[in-house]
Design goal:
4 copies of one chain form a homotetramer.
Chain A: E1 6-12, E2 17-20, E3 25-28, H1 33-39, E4 46-54, H2 61-73, E5 78-82, H3 88-97, E6 104-108, H4 122-133, E7 139-144, E8 147-150, E9 154-156, E10 163-165
Parallel strand pairs in A: 1-4, 1-5, 5-6, 6-7
Antiparallel strand pairs in A: 2-3, 7-8, 9-10
Amino acid sequence: MREEFIQVFITGGTFDKEYNFITGQLYFKDTHLNEMFVRGRCTLELDIKTLMMIDSLEMCDADREIIKHNCISTKTDKIIITHGTDTMVKTAKVLSDAGIEGKTIVLTGAMIPYAFGTSSDGFFNMGSSLGFVQTLPPGVYISMNGRYFQWNKVKKNRQTGFFENITS
Amino acid sequence: MREEFIQVFITGGTFDKEYNFITGQLYFKDTHLNEMFVRGRCTLELDIKTLMMIDSLEMCDADREIIKHNCISTKTDKIIITHGTDTMVKTAKVLSDAGIEGKTIVLTGAMIPYAFGTSSDGFFNMGSSLGFVQTLPPGVYISMNGRYFQWNKVKKNRQTGFFENITS
Amino acid sequence: MREEFIQVFITGGTFDKEYNFITGQLYFKDTHLNEMFVRGRCTLELDIKTLMMIDSLEMCDADREIIKHNCISTKTDKIIITHGTDTMVKTAKVLSDAGIEGKTIVLTGAMIPYAFGTSSDGFFNMGSSLGFVQTLPPGVYISMNGRYFQWNKVKKNRQTGFFENITS
Amino acid sequence: MREEFIQVFITGGTFDKEYNFITGQLYFKDTHLNEMFVRGRCTLELDIKTLMMIDSLEMCDADREIIKHNCISTKTDKIIITHGTDTMVKTAKVLSDAGIEGKTIVLTGAMIPYAFGTSSDGFFNMGSSLGFVQTLPPGVYISMNGRYFQWNKVKKNRQTGFFENITS
């Protein structure tokens, strides 16, 4: 039996990066997701679970297996995954190939860390993703730039940082 | 013939309020919507039009007629309206009573002005509304707190500031 | 015997105002001073004490007596007072008339609440005030707009919100 | 003849770094100094000049010669230099060794870029530096953490990121 909550899986990505003022590098500490839902005054029933906190360029097959396993085992049919933008489509393919039935899976991310204040797109993307996960039919989607894309009809343009439809 | 863009109508509300440091009062100057879509790196085709810049407690019948007229005359079937939260449901009723067919109309707002930086819920609500307007069937909806509500099944709880389902 | 710490007295003012999203009014909750010194990575020895949390237009004689009493009794010779800008000069006069000897007293404030994020001048003003309180000779000063003023040679221009020298 | 304005020299450093969302690296684009003085509602007469935009770890002898030359040739006796924190003391030594007489030179910086919003210490440090440059006697100083230090009695603690007095 499917339950009504929305499952949010955290995997890291630019979304949750922070600035280390000692080293001058970006790194991961704690997720900002909880704080974002409070600020968004979100009253949806959410289950937020951190699966990993990594840069998506460093995500390996085993990591994607963990994500897949969690998508399969969660009891709800509405799943949002925060993910680095560079390999978002690759993870989406793994989830699609897994043949998970009856679940709407939305991968989202940010181009600028949420921790960088009013310049970040993360808060907006999370809002859009919540909209899409509650309304789209089962499938695996990418949500970026206010839009949703079928996972197999999108690519990230590395020159501009925007996600674009693949027109085949 | 319906066109593909999303129509955004601005009516004011807390969303667009600013702090006047001379008088210490909140007031309206320019809208922040354009800036929000840039920050959200939104690549949807949008048509943004300011209908008025007022507090929704001061919105009168003539103002609602203007909103209705614009919803009827726009050539697209996807409409977002930014609106003060206090009378959002009242305007939604006017739009519903107008019998506008085949259009998805989403009213949204904010509890804290966008101009107040990282405490505002406005950017998140706009993200959600973009999600809902692209996916919900024709009708008039309220989008707040990460959720959508049928316009006639929701009320604002004045004590908490949250929108709640009316369970009749 | 004088001690080395800097005394910070909080009286409220725009500095510490917040937005009440239920009523749409500005109000006082907790001070933001501690958070500001953490963010400023301040390593000075500070003693921060909230004397009151009020709008300076509502400050009465008894309130100014409290401020005066505290300035007299603190064991340090370096005092910063956060204060609403509208009657800052009036309080400064009370402190000057008290004939407090050997103490540098700097009154400062903000035109936009610290809680309103990256638009506020409060963080900058607190930085300046720390600079002035450590270096100016004993006396009563106003610190605003990156400058310091002798308390009796300044007025707030109500039209512009800037503090200006009185040229007599 | 000395003039009344404050000279601000920009050299880059963390202060002015920005996040490149394409590469995920920090870089320099335009300075934020002008915007900071507007936000601080600063009414001092300032002359702001960008000498270079570099990381202070990459600053070479020729760069320091440029800074020195500009400090010598400016017509005012009040100079603020924004600078990366890692070699701030080294540049201060060059300026001190130059034997510039009658000028108060304050070097300041930030541990977190100004562009990263409400987490940055830069705005506070600029406020302090304005306070110090207007009040300290001629000499070369470092202003960080709300304090000023004689250039030859301070070191940056690389483990903590704080500036500390050298107690010899």
